[in-house]
Task: structure prediction
Amino acid sequence: MNDNDIIKALSALAHPVRLKVFRSLVVAGAAGVTPGVMQEALDIPATTLSFHLKELTNAGLVNIERSSRNLVYRAAYDQMNALITHLTDNCCQGASCEVSSSADTCQC
Result:
């Protein structure tokens, strides 16, 4: 990922509704979810959901596949993992880093 991709992804996730939508797609896994199911589960109006899905798609965090007459949305795990890798790439100045479950901080 280049810096522009990182900024687009983080900007997309910086909105509470988009973060909620993205997290629901991560939970759904590889099967994905249709907008109707997502709308009902998240209690978001269709037009609002459509807008936020478009933003997540433009940021590369969501993939769309047509299945018959439905659109199925899935989290783009490769992009999500690339983003996380980029953010933690030089953690602890290159030394082995272990996260303590009790403190949720890096133990360098």
